[in-house]
Amino acid sequence: MFTGIVEEIGTIQEIKQGTKSSILTVQGKKIFEDLKLGDSVAVNGVCLTVTGININTFTADVMSETINRSSLGSLKTGGHVNLERALPANGRFGGHIVSGHIDGTGTISAIEKDDNAIWYTVNTSDKIMRYIVEKGSVAIDGISLTVAKATADSLSISIIPHTAKATILSEKNRGSIVNLENDVVGKYVEKLIASQQIEKRPSNITREFLAKAGY
Question: 104-183, what's its fold?
Protein backbone atom coordinates (compact mmCIF):
# COMPACT_ATOMS: atom_id res chain seq x y z
CA MET A 1 0.00 0.00 0.00
CA PHE A 2 1.12 3.56 -0.75
CA THR A 3 -0.01 7.03 0.32
CA GLY A 4 0.55 9.03 -2.86
CA ILE A 5 3.34 11.12 -1.32
CA VAL A 6 6.09 10.96 -3.95
CA GLU A 7 9.52 10.44 -2.41
CA GLU A 8 11.66 11.38 -5.38
CA ILE A 9 11.84 11.69 -9.15
CA GLY A 10 13.60 8.76 -10.80
CA THR A 11 15.06 8.31 -14.29
CA ILE A 12 14.44 5.46 -16.73
CA GLN A 13 17.89 4.05 -17.49
CA GLU A 14 16.89 1.17 -19.75
CA ILE A 15 13.80 -0.47 -21.25
CA LYS A 16 14.00 -4.05 -22.49
CA GLN A 17 10.99 -4.62 -24.71
CA GLY A 18 9.41 -8.04 -24.94
CA THR A 19 6.59 -9.14 -27.22
CA LYS A 20 3.88 -7.86 -24.87
CA SER A 21 5.87 -6.96 -21.76
CA SER A 22 8.99 -5.08 -20.74
CA ILE A 23 11.71 -4.82 -18.10
CA LEU A 24 12.42 -1.37 -16.68
CA THR A 25 15.67 -0.23 -15.10
CA VAL A 26 15.05 2.82 -12.93
CA GLN A 27 17.63 5.08 -11.28
CA GLY A 28 16.96 6.84 -8.02
CA LYS A 29 18.62 7.80 -4.77
CA LYS A 30 16.43 8.18 -1.70
CA ILE A 31 14.42 4.98 -2.12
CA PHE A 32 17.62 2.91 -2.00
CA GLU A 33 18.09 3.67 1.71
CA ASP A 34 16.39 0.37 2.56
CA LEU A 35 15.21 -1.11 -0.75
CA LYS A 36 15.31 -4.91 -1.00
CA LEU A 37 14.54 -7.54 -3.62
CA GLY A 38 10.82 -8.25 -3.71
CA ASP A 39 9.87 -4.82 -2.35
CA SER A 40 7.07 -2.84 -3.97
CA VAL A 41 7.74 0.53 -5.59
CA ALA A 42 5.11 2.78 -7.17
CA VAL A 43 6.42 4.01 -10.53
CA ASN A 44 4.12 6.79 -11.76
CA GLY A 45 1.53 5.25 -9.48
CA VAL A 46 1.93 1.68 -10.76
CA CYS A 47 2.93 -0.89 -8.14
CA LEU A 48 5.96 -2.81 -9.43
CA THR A 49 8.04 -5.51 -7.74
CA VAL A 50 11.80 -5.01 -7.45
CA THR A 51 13.47 -7.93 -9.26
CA GLY A 52 17.05 -6.66 -9.23
CA ILE A 53 19.14 -4.02 -7.47
CA ASN A 54 22.40 -2.42 -8.56
CA ILE A 55 24.10 0.86 -7.58
CA ASN A 56 21.16 3.26 -7.29
CA THR A 57 19.16 1.34 -9.91
CA PHE A 58 16.47 -1.31 -9.69
CA THR A 59 14.77 -3.46 -12.29
CA ALA A 60 11.09 -4.40 -12.48
CA ASP A 61 8.98 -6.48 -14.83
CA VAL A 62 5.98 -4.84 -16.49
CA MET A 63 3.37 -7.31 -17.77
CA SER A 64 1.02 -6.77 -20.70
CA GLU A 65 -2.00 -6.02 -18.47
CA THR A 66 -0.09 -3.16 -16.86
CA ILE A 67 1.07 -1.79 -20.22
CA ASN A 68 -2.50 -1.90 -21.58
CA ARG A 69 -4.04 -0.20 -18.55
CA SER A 70 -1.39 2.43 -17.75
CA SER A 71 1.00 4.85 -19.44
CA LEU A 72 4.12 2.79 -18.65
CA GLY A 73 4.20 1.49 -22.21
CA SER A 74 4.98 5.01 -23.46
CA LEU A 75 8.02 5.55 -21.21
CA LYS A 76 11.30 6.44 -22.92
CA THR A 77 14.91 5.99 -21.83
CA GLY A 78 15.98 9.12 -19.97
CA GLY A 79 12.41 9.97 -19.01
CA HIS A 80 11.44 10.85 -15.46
CA VAL A 81 9.03 8.99 -13.17
CA ASN A 82 7.52 9.50 -9.72
CA LEU A 83 8.80 6.99 -7.15
CA GLU A 84 7.36 5.93 -3.79
CA ARG A 85 8.20 2.97 -1.61
CA ALA A 86 5.42 0.98 0.05
CA LEU A 87 4.22 2.45 3.35
CA PRO A 88 5.97 0.95 6.41
CA ALA A 89 3.82 0.02 9.41
CA ASN A 90 5.27 2.92 11.42
CA GLY A 91 5.15 5.43 8.55
CA ARG A 92 3.22 8.68 8.32
CA PHE A 93 -0.03 8.53 6.36
CA GLY A 94 0.34 11.85 4.57
CA GLY A 95 -1.90 11.26 1.55
CA HIS A 96 -4.68 8.70 1.11
CA ILE A 97 -4.94 4.94 0.53
CA VAL A 98 -3.26 4.22 -2.81
CA SER A 99 -3.02 0.60 -3.95
CA GLY A 100 -0.83 1.12 -7.01
CA HIS A 101 -3.42 -0.66 -9.15
CA ILE A 102 -4.24 1.80 -11.92
CA ASP A 103 -7.90 2.12 -12.97
CA GLY A 104 -7.08 3.77 -16.28
CA THR A 105 -5.54 6.82 -17.88
CA GLY A 106 -6.55 10.39 -18.63
CA THR A 107 -5.37 13.19 -20.91
CA ILE A 108 -4.35 16.62 -19.66
CA SER A 109 -6.58 19.07 -21.53
CA ALA A 110 -5.65 22.32 -19.78
CA ILE A 111 -2.88 23.79 -17.60
CA GLU A 112 -3.50 27.21 -16.05
CA LYS A 113 -1.55 29.37 -13.61
CA ASP A 114 -3.49 30.84 -10.68
CA ASP A 115 -1.14 33.07 -8.69
CA ASN A 116 1.22 30.57 -7.01
CA ALA A 117 -0.95 27.54 -7.87
CA ILE A 118 -1.23 25.56 -11.09
CA TRP A 119 -4.51 24.06 -12.28
CA TYR A 120 -4.53 20.84 -14.29
CA THR A 121 -7.66 19.57 -16.01
CA VAL A 122 -7.71 15.89 -16.96
CA ASN A 123 -10.25 14.35 -19.32
CA THR A 124 -11.05 10.70 -18.81
CA SER A 125 -13.71 8.03 -19.25
CA ASP A 126 -17.05 7.48 -17.51
CA LYS A 127 -15.48 4.41 -15.87
CA ILE A 128 -13.12 6.71 -13.95
CA MET A 129 -15.46 9.68 -13.44
CA ARG A 130 -18.16 7.62 -11.73
CA TYR A 131 -15.91 7.44 -8.64
CA ILE A 132 -14.66 11.03 -8.76
CA VAL A 133 -16.07 13.26 -6.02
CA GLU A 134 -15.40 16.97 -5.70
CA LYS A 135 -13.06 17.50 -2.73
CA GLY A 136 -12.39 13.77 -2.73
CA SER A 137 -9.05 12.09 -3.42
CA VAL A 138 -7.49 10.82 -6.65
CA ALA A 139 -4.01 9.57 -7.48
CA ILE A 140 -2.53 11.08 -10.67
CA ASP A 141 0.74 9.39 -11.70
CA GLY A 142 0.94 8.19 -8.09
CA ILE A 143 0.45 11.64 -6.55
CA SER A 144 -2.24 11.97 -3.89
CA LEU A 145 -4.33 14.98 -4.93
CA THR A 146 -7.64 16.59 -4.03
CA VAL A 147 -10.28 16.95 -6.74
CA ALA A 148 -11.05 20.68 -6.89
CA LYS A 149 -13.64 20.47 -9.68
CA ALA A 150 -15.44 17.68 -11.51
CA THR A 151 -17.59 17.61 -14.64
CA ALA A 152 -19.16 14.74 -16.56
CA ASP A 153 -15.91 13.89 -18.33
CA SER A 154 -13.11 15.74 -16.54
CA LEU A 155 -11.53 16.45 -13.18
CA SER A 156 -9.42 19.42 -12.13
CA ILE A 157 -6.76 19.65 -9.46
CA SER A 158 -4.78 22.60 -8.13
CA ILE A 159 -1.20 22.09 -6.97
CA ILE A 160 1.23 24.20 -4.99
CA PRO A 161 4.80 24.96 -6.18
CA HIS A 162 6.28 22.25 -3.90
CA THR A 163 4.18 19.52 -5.54
CA ALA A 164 5.17 20.74 -9.00
CA LYS A 165 8.86 20.69 -8.05
CA ALA A 166 8.79 17.34 -6.23
CA THR A 167 6.93 15.42 -8.95
CA ILE A 168 6.89 15.10 -12.74
CA LEU A 169 3.66 17.09 -13.05
CA SER A 170 5.77 20.14 -13.86
CA GLU A 171 7.02 18.30 -16.98
CA LYS A 172 3.53 17.59 -18.29
CA ASN A 173 1.94 19.45 -21.19
CA ARG A 174 -1.50 19.58 -22.77
CA GLY A 175 -2.08 16.19 -24.35
CA SER A 176 0.10 14.30 -21.86
CA ILE A 177 -1.26 10.95 -20.68
CA VAL A 178 -1.42 10.34 -16.92
CA ASN A 179 -2.23 7.30 -14.79
CA LEU A 180 -5.36 7.53 -12.64
CA GLU A 181 -6.33 5.56 -9.57
CA ASN A 182 -9.69 6.19 -7.91
CA ASP A 183 -10.14 6.25 -4.17
CA VAL A 184 -10.63 2.59 -3.25
CA VAL A 185 -13.31 3.44 -0.64
CA GLY A 186 -15.86 4.41 -3.30
CA LYS A 187 -15.37 1.16 -5.22
CA TYR A 188 -15.91 -0.98 -2.12
CA VAL A 189 -19.01 0.99 -1.10
CA GLU A 190 -20.49 0.49 -4.58
CA LYS A 191 -19.74 -3.26 -4.46
CA LEU A 192 -21.31 -3.58 -1.01
CA ILE A 193 -24.52 -1.80 -2.03
CA ALA A 194 -24.79 -3.79 -5.27
CA SER A 195 -24.41 -7.14 -3.48
CA GLN A 196 -27.06 -6.19 -0.92
CA GLN A 197 -29.48 -5.22 -3.67
CA ILE A 198 -28.93 -8.53 -5.47
CA GLU A 199 -29.41 -10.58 -2.32
CA LYS A 200 -32.23 -8.30 -1.17
CA ARG A 201 -30.85 -8.24 2.33
CA PRO A 202 -32.21 -5.51 4.61
CA SER A 203 -29.52 -3.04 5.61
CA ASN A 204 -29.25 0.36 7.23
CA ILE A 205 -26.49 1.29 4.72
CA THR A 206 -28.36 3.01 1.91
CA ARG A 207 -27.40 5.65 -0.66
CA GLU A 208 -29.29 8.21 1.40
CA PHE A 209 -27.42 7.19 4.57
CA LEU A 210 -24.04 7.47 2.81
CA ALA A 211 -24.96 10.84 1.27
CA LYS A 212 -25.86 12.25 4.69
CA ALA A 213 -22.55 10.87 6.05
CA GLY A 214 -20.63 12.77 3.39
CA TYR A 215 -19.85 9.95 0.96
Answer: Elongation Factor Tu (Ef-tu); domain 3 (2.40.30)
Describe the strand order of the beta sheet including 117-123 as a list of residue ranges.
143-146, 137-140, 177-182, 104-114, 117-123, 154-159, 149-150
In angstroms, the CA 150 to CA 214 distance is 17
- Whole-model pTM? 0.88
Nearest Cα to 136, choosing from 110, 112, 156? Answer: 156
Domain range summary for the chain, segments of one domain joined by +: 8-85, 104-183, 184-215
CATH number listed for the domain at residues 8-85:
2.40.30.20
Closest CA to 45 of 161, 138, 176, 175: 138
53 vs 93: which has the higher pLDDT = 53
Q: How many CB atoms are located within 10 Å of the residue 156 CB?
A: 17
